[in-house]
């Protein structure tokens, strides 16, 4: 949000960029002919309450060429798969060791806010489905600078994440002896080529791949839940450190209770837990290519409550009841740790291979989603001038291949660099990606708040699918995201260096804006609606109506 509206610390990158990019009003850019075009675009209409309103922004050009190839079953699985990834399958082990059983509470709290973000996104999607997702909404509600910063921060997120994903795939493949002889960079490159090829064919291929990726992850979790419950109900023994261990709540009592290491470690790990939910916003991107959006999107979003409660919170609770928190460790899937504790080495080996396949699937799923979403985001940005014009190129099959190839090019560079970069620097790159996620989620909430404000003024249609408890829940979500940034800053050294990287990121965004500004404003000036005549500030429609009246008087003179 712009400074005069009270910027949220959650959107630190956007707030600084938009506060720094100061320049003259669009009047200096609009010559006499363009002034008339601007005046025409401010013609008012009446809504069903009889209140004068500005014409709705026309962003339909962003959707030209796309095919509605995603089916309801695919979108449901995309929604599920977006919230289940390596953050749970791999990262939960180290976090359990740090926070103990309290990690379940951390996942629950983060999951509640993830649900709020999805419900806010649902309001925006039903207002106007768009493959540009929150970037397009940022342009509609806050103007061009906001959309520019949000878009490139999101691209930064997925570019970094794609680098991590390809490397992770290579590491997971080398778990099996058949791949140990192959160089890591070659396996990473093969993974990228395979997923890239699937994304270049058609959206239905992406949807089908993501459907099966998500199905594998869900099946693995359901299998664990069933086995874990059986082990608890029948009190079957497990082994930890070579000794038999009693399962159940007694494990908590014998190992320091709910907060064995204190409250602070449980609070600190929330920054890592938040990013276990990364990619939930993919539902918004997919909405632009989905059939029956009004019915499918609410159903997909509402299902989040169930899967958060069962898959995330349920899994963590069961893991903490089956083994002492000290049995879990960083770098090993907690599910592998549990199955290896059943006392049979052969079972442990088999399950280890199965879970490695599941984690491999999660990494491929993330890479698949990254290429899909950034391709659409860059296409939307290119259509509005925020990205190079060639990123708007689209195949006959409705695939924005130019944007996808740009992301893939960054990923190839990352595969090469990863050969030389130390592990700590690699972690910093992953944390930089997290800044893009916070920016995306904060943008979604701010756009929802503006949409609700306009609806109350009769300047937009009242949403039928709403964020519960808004605006209180919206403000709480922004405060939560801001607290995550603070926790990152005090998490020395990686988190501190990540926040410090904004010193480099923000100037790059500013330079990029000025390089693209003329094209952005030229395109925006031709667009009717809120951000047309005033593309810099994204004026409120009510103010636009008043300005339209004033300008009509000026034209008469």
Automatic annotation (TrEMBL):
<keyword id="KW-0029">Amino-acid transport</keyword>
<feature type="transmembrane region" description="Helical">
    <location>
        <begin position="347"/>
        <end position="371"/>
    </location>
</feature>
<dbReference type="Pfam" id="PF00324">
    <property type="entry name" value="AA_permease"/>
</dbReference>
<feature type="transmembrane region" description="Helical">
    <location>
        <begin position="146"/>
        <end position="173"/>
    </location>
</feature>
<dbReference type="GO" id="GO:0006865">
    <property type="term" value="P:amino acid transport"/>
</dbReference>
<feature type="domain" description="Amino acid permease/ SLC12A">
    <location>
        <begin position="75"/>
        <end position="519"/>
    </location>
</feature>
<dbReference type="GO" id="GO:0005886">
    <property type="term" value="C:plasma membrane"/>
</dbReference>
<dbReference type="GO" id="GO:0055085">
    <property type="term" value="P:transmembrane transport"/>
</dbReference>
<feature type="transmembrane region" description="Helical">
    <location>
        <begin position="428"/>
        <end position="451"/>
    </location>
</feature>
<feature type="transmembrane region" description="Helical">
    <location>
        <begin position="77"/>
        <end position="96"/>
    </location>
</feature>
<feature type="region of interest" description="Disordered">
    <location>
        <begin position="535"/>
        <end position="557"/>
    </location>
</feature>
<feature type="transmembrane region" description="Helical">
    <location>
        <begin position="399"/>
        <end position="422"/>
    </location>
</feature>
<keyword id="KW-1003">Cell membrane</keyword>
<dbReference type="InterPro" id="IPR004841">
    <property type="entry name" value="AA-permease/SLC12A_dom"/>
</dbReference>
<feature type="transmembrane region" description="Helical">
    <location>
        <begin position="472"/>
        <end position="490"/>
    </location>
</feature>
<feature type="transmembrane region" description="Helical">
    <location>
        <begin position="102"/>
        <end position="126"/>
    </location>
</feature>
<feature type="transmembrane region" description="Helical">
    <location>
        <begin position="304"/>
        <end position="327"/>
    </location>
</feature>
<feature type="transmembrane region" description="Helical">
    <location>
        <begin position="185"/>
        <end position="206"/>
    </location>
</feature>
<comment type="similarity">
    <text>Belongs to the amino acid-polyamine-organocation (APC) superfamily. Amino acid transporter (AAT) (TC 2.A.3.1) family.</text>
</comment>
<protein>
    <submittedName>
        <fullName>Asparagine:proton symporter (AAT family)</fullName>
    </submittedName>
</protein>
<keyword id="KW-0472">Membrane</keyword>
<feature type="transmembrane region" description="Helical">
    <location>
        <begin position="496"/>
        <end position="515"/>
    </location>
</feature>
<dbReference type="InterPro" id="IPR004840">
    <property type="entry name" value="Amino_acid_permease_CS"/>
</dbReference>
<feature type="transmembrane region" description="Helical">
    <location>
        <begin position="218"/>
        <end position="238"/>
    </location>
</feature>
<keyword id="KW-1133">Transmembrane helix</keyword>
<keyword id="KW-0812">Transmembrane</keyword>
<feature type="transmembrane region" description="Helical">
    <location>
        <begin position="258"/>
        <end position="283"/>
    </location>
</feature>
<keyword id="KW-0813">Transport</keyword>
